[in-house]
Structures are given as C-alpha cells and as structure tokens.
Design brief:
The structure is a homooctamer.
Chain A: E1 21-23, E2 28-30, H1 33-37, E3 42-44, H2 50-63, E4 69-72, H3 76-85, E5 90-92, E6 97-100, E7 109-114, H4 120-132, E8 136-140, H5 148-153, H6 155-159, E9 163-168, H7 174-181, E10 186-190, H8 202-209, E11 216-218, H9 224-236
Parallel strand pairs in A: 3-4, 7-8, 7-9, 9-10, 10-11
Antiparallel strand pairs in A: 1-2, 4-6, 5-6
C-alpha cells in the first residue's frame, strides 16, 4: 500500500499488485492512480460504446478485486448491457451510474441536499461517488428555498453532517440559505436546470460563486462527480471533534 | 385633470393648468407628463450641476404647487446646495434623494425589503419614490437569507403588503425565498453590491430572472427608481379584497 | 380557506381538504401550494411523456375539483393524448396549453399585446395563464411598432386595462412605446423571436430592461407563464379607483 | 481633381496641388486622401494636446484653403485654445467639434433625429460631419418614442429627407419606429446613454441591429463621425426622383 | 400610387388598388406596405411549409400583378414545390430565393462583393433582393483579401458602382480593404462563415463594426435581405453626379 | 457555548455572554454569529473609513475578549491608524489584514501555495484567515509551474497538509498540477493577476473550474477570505487517519 | 518554381506548369497558391459530399503529381469512399485526414504533445499537416499535467525538437508547463475537450493566451490545421544552431 | 553554460557563473533563467516604483555583464530616473522600454509591421524585445489596409524577413492581408487601439484568431513582449534555405 502523506486517508486500504496500466485498445487505464491518490477507478461513460464501458469496468474490477469500481454518465443503452453482462453490478438509472464491487466502509457523512426532481440526476451521481470514494452519502431531497418549512425541518440532520453538498439549479439560492444555517464545510453544486435564458447553468454557477455566506466552495455546473470526490476526501479525514 | 382610462388611479388628483413645457436652457421639462400618466415629476441628478438640479426642482415645484417633486441620484455637492437653497426640502443622504412638497395621501402599502447596509441606498431611493408616487413605503432592513430567523420574523408584515420589492445584491437569493413565503406581487430589485467577480450586478440580476418561484418581476440593476414607480402604480390600484 | 395575509386576493376561493401531496412516481405534486399562495396548480409539460402529463392533470383535477388546472409547454404528442383522454379539456395548440376545469370568475383585465404571428405562442400561453390564475385576458395582436397606426388605434383599449403585458421579440421596441402611451402597470415579456445574431432573445431582453419609459417590469425570455402569473396577481388586487 | 469613378460625387470639387503628406512630428497628415475619396480632412481630437489639435487644423487648412477642415472629440481645453488661436473657427461645445473654413454647398438633406439632451452630443457631432462632408444636416431633437405625438408631428419633415440618422440610447426603439414610418435610407446611430446595466451601449446597439423594420443600417456605438460620413456620401449622390 | 415624400424613389411605380390585407389563415399579408414605403412584398420562407410559401407567393402576385414578389430562405422542399407549382418563377438554389413577376427597371448599380463559395448564399440572396427592390445587382465573387491581386483587378468596377455591399465571414477584412480603395457608400454584410471559435459570426460582425475606414455601415450577420433592401434604397436615389 | 451539531468543530470554544448585536451607527455588528457557526468575527475594511475599522475592531474585541478578531482589505490609511490606536494588533501590510487578540490553538495544517510576488497579497490574506479561523497556515511561495523543479521540491510538504489552497493568476495551471501530485482536499483560489486580456481573472477562474484533475474546489477570484474560511473549517475537522 | 523571397523555404521544390485554377463546378481550386506560398493544397472536408472530396483530391493530385495533397475533417462516409476510390491514399480515421502522394523530405522536427485520447483527433490532424507541409511530426501522447512524471520523462525529446505544439483541452495547463521546461518555439493548440461549463474551448483558449511563460503563440480552438501549417513553416526554416 | 537541447539556439552564448537568485527585497530575480532557456532577463516596469526598476536593472546588469537587460512598460517617471541614474541606457519613450548593455549579434530578421501612430508603442516594444532577444528587428510603419498601395510597396521587404509580426488594432485586417501576400511565419499582435465599442481589443483579437489565411499565430492583446520573444526564438533558429 502506498504510504505517502497524500494517502494518509485513502478511501480503500490495502496493497495493489497488478500492472500499472491496462491497454484496452480504445482506452489506456491508469491502474496505479489508486495507489498514488487513494481514490478508486472511474469510467466516464459519455461518448463510449456500451461494450467499451462494460469492458473497462471488467478490466478495472479484475485489477482491483477488493474495491468498488464505478462508471458515470452511463447511457440507457450501456445501462441495459451492464444489466445483462455484469450480474452483480448496482445500477442507478436516475443517477446514470453503474457500480461493481463493494464500497469501502464509510468514514464521515456527506449530506447531499437538493430541491427536487430536476436536480436529482446530478445529486444521485454525487451521492454514489461519495459512497464509492469512501464516505456515507445522505441524500436529502425536496428542500428547495421556495418551500422553506421543508428545509428548516431538515436543519439538524444537515448540520450534523461532516460535509454538505448543496445541489441547485435556476437561481441557486439553496447554498446561501444553507450556509447561513450551518457551519459545516459546504460545497455548492450548481446544475443546468432552468427555463428560459439561464445560460446553461451560468446563473446558478455565478450565484454560488457570489454567495453572501462566507466559505462556500463550488464546482463546475452539473459536476456531481467532482463534488462527490471532493466531499468524500474531506469526510474521510473527519475525526472526533477537537 | 386628465381623465383618460390610463389615469384612473393617478398618484395625485387635480387639474394642472400651467404650460406644457419649461425650458431651463440646460433642460426642457415636460410639465405635461403628469397629466398624461398621473405620475409626478422627477429630476435625475447624476451628471447635472448642483445649480441645475436646484433650478429644475424649483421650476417643477412652481408648475406643480400641489404635489411633491423629486430629485434622485443627488450628489453630496447638490445635497449641500439643496439644504441651503430649498428650505422645505426633505433630504435623504443615504438614498440620495431630495423631495420638495407634500407627498400625496398614500394608497396601498409597498414592503421594501433588503439585507442590510450595502443595499440601503438603493432600497431607500425606492422607498422615497414609492412615497412620492402615491403609495406607502414600508422599509424592512436586515433580513438577508444568511440570517433566516430575522426574515421569518417579518413574514406576516411582508405578506400583508400590497406589493413587495425585494432588494438584493451578491447572489440575490432573497426574492426567491420571499416569493416562496408570500403570494403578493413581487418585484426583484437586484443591486451591484458584491465582492470579487460578480459582473457589476449581473449575478444578482440573472438570479432574480431565474427565480424558482413563479411570478417574480424584475427591473434593471440598482434601478430603485424604476422599481418604486412600478410598485406605486400597482399599489395605487389596490382595492378591497375580491 | 387559507386566510393569511398573502392570500387576501386568491384566484380561487374556498377550502381544500385533500392530502398535502400526491406522489405519482414520476412526480410529487404539492397539493397544498394553492392554499398557501391562492394560485392554481400547473404542470410544466416540457420533458414529460404524454402519459405523465395526462396523469398529472388528472391527479390535480381530482384534488381540486372546483378549479382549473393547467399544463403548459405541451408537445404535439401530449396534445393528441389529451384530446383522446381528457374529453372536457380546452386545448390551445398555438399557445401549447391544456386546461381542465372552469377558470375562476375573473377580477381585473390584463391586456396581452403583441406584434404578430411569431410572438403568438408566448402571448397565448400568457393569456391562458392569466385566465386560469383569475383575471380576464385581453389578447391584442398585430400592433407592432413598424405599423404604428395599428398600435395607436388600440390605445384606449390598452390604457383601460388593469395590467399590460407587452410581448415583443427582435429589438423589442413595443414595451417602451406602450409605456409612453399609458400609465398602467406594464410587464415586458421579451421573446426569442428574431433573425441573425440576436443571442436567443438577449437583445429583446436587454431592450426591455433598459426602457426609456420608467416603471417597466420584465420577466425572462419567452416566460409567458411567469408574466401571466404576475399579471393576474396584480389584476386580482385591482379595486375601484382611489 | 481626382476623376476616378469613386469620386464622381466628391464633397468638395476642385484640384489639390500640395504635397501628399505633412509630417507634424506628432502626426503624419495624409493630404492626399481627399483626392482619393473626395472627403475632407478630419482631426480626431481625443488623446491629443490642445496644441497638437490646433497645429493639425492649421496645417490641414493651409493645404486645403478651399474647403472646411474639422476636428472632432475636442476637449474643453482644446476648445478654449481654438477660440484664442483660430479666430474664424466655428466651435460646437456640445458636439465637441471645431470647423475651419467654409463647408461646401450642400447636396441632399440628412435628418438627424434624436430623443433629447443625453443624445445631443453625438447627434450634433453627426450633424456637423454631415455639413463638412457636403450635405445639409437637419437636426430634429426631442422626438423620443416615450412621447410618440412629438415624433408623429415631425413625420413629414423626416420622410422628406434624403437620409435619416436615428440617434438613440437606452433601448433604442427610435430607429425601428422611424423605419416603420418612412422609406428613406436609414442609419441607426446607437449611443451609450443609459442607466444601470446597459453594457456601455450594447443594448442600444443590439436593438438597432435587430430592428423589425427591414433595411436599417448601423454604425458603432456613439460613432457620430462614421454615421455622418456615410450619410453625407449617400445624400451627395441623391438626384431627382427616378 | 402613394406620393408621400418617403416614396419619392419607389422601386415600382404605379397604383395599387387591391385590399389592404390578405388573410391566408397561416399568415396575414400586409398588401398596403408597398404603397406606404415603395418596397415590394417578401415572404420569409424559413419556418413555413412549402404549401404556405407557394400560397403566399400566389396571393401576393395576384395583389401585385405589375411587380415582382419574392420569397427568401426557401428550403429545398419548398424550392421543389415552387418548380412544380409556379411555372414562371425564377429559382436560385444557392441564394435560396424564389422570384415571381418582373423586376422593375433598375435605377443605380449595387456591387455585391465576396470572397468565394462559402459567402455565396448570402451574397446571392442580397443580389436578388437588390434586383427585386429596384436596383441593378453586380455580383463580384472570388476577391478575398488573401488573394489581393484579384481584388485590385476589380477596383474600377467596384468604384464605379453606386453602392457597395462587402460580404465577408471569418475575420471580415474585406470591407476595410474596400473602404480604403473606394469612396462609394459601403455596406458591410458579415457572414457566419468560419472555422473554430468564431462565435457564429460575431468576429466578422465586430470587425466590420470597427473598420479603420470611416463611413462603413453594417447589418446583422447573414442578413443578405436587409443589406439588399438598404442598398437598393440608396441606389434608387442616385442621380447624375452633383 | 453553542453546542448544536454545526459547531461540533468550532474554531474557538467557550461561551459568549454579551449582547446579540452592537450598533456602531455606521454598522450593526452581529455578535451572535460566532455562537451560531463557531467562526470568529471579521470586519471587511474596503469602503470603510480608518476610524470605522478601528471602532469596529474595538467593539468586536470587547465582545469577544477570548478570541481573535480580524479586519481584511485594510487600506494603507487604516493600517496607519491601527498602528497608532491598536497597540497589540498584528499588521500585515502585504496581506492587508489587521488581527487583534490571540488566534486559537490550531487544528490541522493548511498549505497555502502560490507562484510569487503578484499572488502574495491574496495568499497572505488567506493564510491569516486560516490562522484566525483555527487552523495552522503553511505559506509556500515561489512554486509556479514555469519553474517546475521548485514545485516538485515542495511536494512532500504539500502532500502532508490537511488542506491545500492553490493560489494562481494568469492561466492558473498550478491547481491542476498540484491536484495531480497529491490527494489532499484542494481549494483553487484564482487571482486577478495577469497582463493583457485576461478578463479580470476570469481566465484563471475558468481554468480552475475546468481542472483535468478530479475534486478541485474553487472560490471567487481574489477571494482569499472565503478560501481561508473554508480551508480552516475542513482542517479543524481533521482527526487521526482512519 | 516561384523564387520570390517568401518561398525561400518551400515545402516542396520544383516548378508547376498547370493552369492557375481548376473549376470543379462545386469548387474552384487555386492551383497557383503552392507557387505563391510554397505550401501544398488542402481540401477542407467538412460540409462537402464524399464525391466532392474525392473529386477535389483527384484534381489536385493531377495538378501536383510531385507532391502530397491532403483532405482534412473527413467524415466517415468520405473516408469509406476514399478507401474504395483512391487506392494509394493514406487514411487516418482518428485524425480525420486523407493524404494522397508522397510527403516531401522533412526539414526540422515538430513535437506534437498532448495528454491523451480526447485530444488525439486534433493532435493527429496537426501531425499529418506538419508532415504534408514538409516537416517531421513527432507525436507524444499521454503526457498530461495530472501525471507529471510522464511529462518529465519526455522532457529531453521535447526540448530537442525545432518547434513544439502543445495540444490541450479543459484548463490547458500543458503549454505553460512545457514553456517553463524548454526554450523551443511553442504553439499552444487549445481543444474543445472538457466537461461541464467550459464554453466550447474558450477556457483552454484563454489559458493558453494568458500563459505565465513568455513567448507562447496560439491558434484557434481545435485548429490542428493552422497549428500544423505554422509549425511546419517554422521548422522548415530551421538551420544548424547559430 | 547550459547545453541542453532547448538552448541549442540561445540568444546570448557564454557561461554565467553568478548566484542563481538575487533578492532585492521587493523582488526576487531568477538569475538562472537565462541559462535554462537562453533568454535574457527582463523587468516588467508596470506597478513598480522608479527606484525599484532602476535597482532591478542594475542587479541584472551586474549578474549578466555580457548581455543586454531590459525593462518594459516603463512609466515616464521611471524613464526620467533611468536617464539620470543609468548613463549608458537606451531609452525608448514611445515603446516604453529601457535597455542596458549590448544586444547580441542578431540572427535572422523580424519584420514588425503596423499601420501607424496608434499601434506604435506596442510595435516598438516588440521591436526592442526582438533585438534584445537576439534577432534583427525591421520596423515598418504606416502600412495599414486602408492605404493598400503603401502596404504593397513594402511587400518584398516583408516577404524577405524570417518572421513577420503584424501589429493591428481596430478590425485588425492587416495580418490576413499580409498572410495572403507572403509565406513567412507570421505572428499577429492585436492591439487595443480603437474607437467606440471594440471591447478593449477583443475585436482585433478575434479577427486575428479567425484569419482566412492559414497558419497565422497570435498572442494576447497589446502583448508586444510575448510577440517579440516568440519572433526572436523563431528567427534565431533560421538557417540557410533547405
């Protein structure tokens, strides 16, 4: 196992002894990255054929039999092939993810909070990434700012998390409202959900960037993967209160 | 008095019999506009010398002895001259307005809501315009979304107004939160308040434009005058519940 | 009936006694919103299957037998299914709306003004929303600024309305011209109609935002729904002149 | 005199026999351009010292004793020096121009139309350029779209011109309204006049570019010089109706 | 025939005695516009069915038997139907136009200049509009700035025109180079032709707007129709040199 | 002391018993925020007079005698007055901060990494905020990507931190390079440092947002305060490796 | 052979004696350009039918039997036809190019460096252009900044080239890192590769434009052709060290 | 002296034996960079005091007695101090540069071409950088595209250079025109020169980026330094024709 200082809190402990790369023809897999950073392997499914995604998942699973491997942005066609070809895989059709192998025992809890149906694909992708990267996701849906009573009813649950990911499209008021309610590290995840002239999520993005509450961090529009990776890294480091 | 259908709810009743225009050399005043639209006369103070603003206010007041006339965006130098030269004038140094003459008896109440100090100049300009244009302004400060308890404490007061103007800079979450709390006609007034890369208020503006709550109306950035005119027009029409 | 101050002017009077939410699997309907805000229920049709829209309309109609429910942005496929499955529904193929149940008795009149064929879908969506939200829509077509005589011929009809919605694409000169003619509360509804480099309606939008006439309010590009909700809210409050 | 086909309609007839260039140290004057294009010489005053502008005007006047020479964007300091040093010069403090020498006998009339005080500097710069470049300027002020009756009162005067320049800031509705009223060649001259978020004239510019009336031509924001040059070129070619 | 001052130079002389409008169900044709502005009638073909375009052309031709009527942006399907249904029509498949009836005797010549194949559709649309609107188009192709010798070989032909339309995509250097060569009124017509990140013609557009040569006029990207209308209006006024 | 779940890891333990607000006339201080969020109080110095900043610091220090209070964006004039009036204050002229009172015992280490002189003001502001908010800042300067050997020499020191803040202007390649080297939670802090057309830091900002390395979090341009708050919140939660 | 000073370093020596142009109906080929600039002929395949591309390649090859001719941006359909119809052609399906005829003996070496699979189409197009334009391409893949060790392992190979083309999407850190490592003339070739809100390559483009390393040159997004032409021109001039 | 492959063509041969860095307090000078890249040392004068610039030049000159050192973007105040304190320095007040020490014997010639006065500061800065970095600058002024005959008169001189830098503001047509005339490696250097709405040079920049002539390279707006560095690097590699 890599023991350098940057993997003091790896998502998955234990040695890896396979080759450093696998060349599948259509992709060269970096089998060594987990050792360098402590993170699991992920296949970005967009733009790949179903056969390529299934092949890459199999190769990664073979190289890492002791940990989960993940595919994101999986198309319906790929989802169907995974159902047939990868019997033990966990499929999330809304979040567009396929997971193979057991997630590590979680360290820390990540509250993934969103307003509702439209933001759900991005929120669920984030939650699955959190799980595969070694923390416990806690998905809290239906708490948009237009129905403030629902949000306030969840305040204690959110405040007790180790990290909060606030998923929001349109005007993205949720991160600011949450950051005024709790002092937990907070990642704003803007989405491209909206009607009319919202510039493909730029509105949500600018709003999170200019939150009136200090300390809000953000990722790119619809980047549930990036938010999940960052949230899990933070949560994994969480110790008892000091 | 003009009695056409568009002045059924004028801010100031009563005939006007002076000339249709006054030519001050540096400006030609449209003394007839009040009759056409029912609205009072306003001097836009930015870019004018103190003497020009004082002169314009005097000419308008002479033409409209029975109603208030207003100057907006008044510079400190102009403010000082108004204090010396226009004894009865009401000066608002924060809102940058000077009012001469009595405001009409108000019809309807306009809640002007904002988060705090930075938004105050725009909010007070709006409130004064509401008053001069014939409605009752109700300025509610210190209710930003980062301190939600203060906002919720004012909910009934806001919900009981005839129109709400939600003044907000930075990420401008306030209009959406308010629009989820009350069903009153709501005007979002974005401001250019912010730190860092906020594009001179574009962020606030886009946020109000993309509110997740339906029916939010908006005006240009920092346009306290326009929001006040529109809010007063709506409030003046308010009748008993139907 | 909810009697809080924010529903002093509800679109539809009378109690609602059903459950607060209906979970259709693909959507969770907030059956309580009408009581909180006095507004009817609306299904946003874009991105939903015909079966989902029909199902949602039926569920809402069952929960609110005494008022109209509405679907907007209905696709041709959904329109066809509604024709078969919802016998009493009123279909507007140009405005892309389906209404089920009786609209409330209207309070106040909303003039929805536009230049012609291209703006008609947005204008008709707005007019239907006005009706379902409790005011009387008055659709005035073919009055673009390039044929000023037609616009002037409608001046009195427009000036006599309680609210004006000025629908305009391209350079969107209509709201400014109208706001110079009448003193009625005026909502500019920019559309994405145009040729060449018009930035998907940004030109129209910026124009309405910078109107030289004071007090022009605006909504997002093509947002006929939002303009209709806001216009009806204002019109419903209209009382006898004060 | 240059007799090439492109100077069939020169602003100023007659030969030029001086040297092709004058080197003033701080500027090299192209004394030959008039012969090539039939246009007079112009000094762009912005960014030059008063002495440089006066010197350049003198050198041009010496080279072209039979025609007017012009300086634009003249600062107040330069204006003052011109008053002292160039006795016969015509100074326009609002339009920021200084003209030396007699304008040619005008061919064709250019209506320069604008809404009022704010657009006046650009409109007057344009009118002076029209005159110096050989056509008759006809400045028509105070005809903004917010006061349509004034505009309509000037319709015949505008329709009888050979070219119309429609000067407009803010939402720039004037060019479209004019283009719907008259069939004369029309140049839209957007200005940076506006309040709030108008993007330094971009709004006006986009509006003129997207006019619903066909055949509207446009120049850059505040480019009174360019509009005047183009308008005069067109007007000079005007013959009797065919 | 309308004899108001704005139709002193109509494209087509003679009275029109039909009704002022024709309602085809899918479109209301303004049969009176020609009388008001002297311009012919045009059907914008984009977004209309082949049957609608053919029907509109027939109705216009019936109302204006003595002049040409035109359809622009005609799709291949519509082109095919026009070939079958409108025997005498002139079809331009590259310029996407269909013309019915005789063009008026031309007054003035318009040089339409472009670099080559990619700009040809826009250039030919412009040339046809020039012809139908009453001037003589002179299409000059293959004279881009990257092959300067070809452009210089056409200099006299271009300089002898009454108006120049410079059609250019990509970096749009052509209008500036032409405006430095000739003194003729010049309209820049930017096109959306380009590779890579050219912002759908914004680059070409900004370039024409910022030409270093004074007096360049411009229209919207790809707006061959607008450029043709304006060019013909100018050319029609051209008299013998003064 | 507030013991809600969101202050499980407060920067400063211990009760606060003073009033909830202090009204200084020019500012209303929220003395209760620390209890709600566990964070210290901060005065934003930009736009305030030296006297106001000194007064606010004194009021906060009186209310919180047991913890540090901080002023950021302090002008040279304010810095000078602080030196005279606040004897025990720690002044950082480069980072533009003034600190009064002892920082809490740090929990966790935050590596603040930047390329050099130009980014130093933002980096030092961030480091001071980290300290005052309860973590140990470790400022590592002179490690830009143009001199990769220096960066690689610091790899272990950076990898051993609990959080990394990568401060970078211009093209902002540093966060991506760092995120490829270490697996620590990483916050990119773009700065407005640059020459030519860099859009006031937009370039740096977009670069950090699009990092090819997963899990990079970001804050607004030049927002050293926000990055410091977030980094300290994360670092304070750090426990022994799990 | 053209012997003007600008073809002192032509890609392909030797005379050309064919006609100056070939008109294929759908395209007019400039057979003379090679003589003027020393560059080979290229067919831009996008937007052309397979038959047109094959025909153009044949015509160019017949006119230039002694040098390679090239088609870029070849679609899969065109690629298939070329395989059938042009037996000796070299097809690159990833780089989307078809080459006919022998490349000239290379002068100078161009290192084309990129991070991996996504940038490969643009990088290979560039490499082929380099070859056809007379230099030796050296394609170095899999050296992104997120895996710095691989990049450092290739340092000497890159530093020994005559020109470097750094191909990079997303945040495009590669050109800056390379420019800090080697002093070779360096062309940054940004690509539109990225996830989320990257503005179609604008991010990569702005990053290359603002490189902290001096002397970085850039081309448009995805412009492998332009980068290849420029790189070959530079490499062909390379002599022994001076 | 470093003999790695990336300094095969250094601007200045010979060993450097001083320390690797000099710390002046206000700046840390990287004395080793020349050895690594073969380039001379440069002080960026903007934002530094006159004393700092003079001090930095002296320190660099002491460390590199055998080569020229350079300061760019020198303010008038700094220029005055350099005149007093650095007797042998060469001052260019227009190009804003100060050079100390002898430039190396030039290898290759760089034609720096621009239209005239406005572009001269950037062009001269570029020319001086070319000289100090080891090539021969050839400044060609007054050849804008609006006076094509002057440009054509310089064609052979430009075509005979080893590199061309085309400096251009406004619509920046010059690089495209030049690239059509000569086959020499060409760097477009856009400037922020312009009137009206040109977006601080964006127009020029986009134009150069979208040149219709293949192989045009570009640098950031006004980046005379970067263009000079790149041009010299290319020129220094130039050998006899191959």
């Amino acid at each position: 196992m890599a023991t350098g200082p940057d993997v003091a809190h790896p998502a998955v402990p234990g040695p890896r002894t396979g080759p450093a790369e696998a060349d599948l023809g259509y992709a060269r897999l970096d089998l060594d990255r987990a050792a360098r950073t402590g993170d699991p392997e992920v296949v970005y499914g967009a733009g790949k054929t179903p056969e390529q995604v299934v092949g890459a998942l199999r190769a990664l699973a073979a190289a890492h039999p002791d940990r989960a491997v993940l595919a994101t942005r999986v198309t319906p066609e790929t989802m169907a092939l995974c159902r047939d070809e990868l019997p033990g895989a966990r499929l999330d059709e809304i979040g567009r993810t396929v997971t193979l192998g057991s997630a590590p025992a979680p360290v820390g809890r990540v509250a993934v909070v969103c307003a509702g149906t439209s933001d759900l694909p991005v929120a669920r992708e984030c939650a699955t990434v959190v799980e595969v990267f070694g923390a416990e996701p806690d998905l809290i849906v239906d708490v948009g700012v237009a129905g403030l009573h629902r949000l306030l009813a969840q305040r204690d649950r959110i405040a007790g998390a180790d990290v909060v990911v606030a998923v929001a499209g349109m005007e993205a008021a949720l991160p600011s409202v949450l950051a005024g309610l709790v002092g937990v590290p907070l990642i704003a995840l803007p989405t491209s959900v909206g009607y009319g002239w919202h510039l493909d999520g730029l509105t949500a993005f600018l709003a999170t960037l200019n939150s009136c509450a200090p300390g809000v961090l953000c990722v790119n529009v619809d980047n549930g993967f990036g938010a999940g990776v960052a949230a899990a890294r933070i949560a994994r480091r969480t110790g008892p209160p000091r």
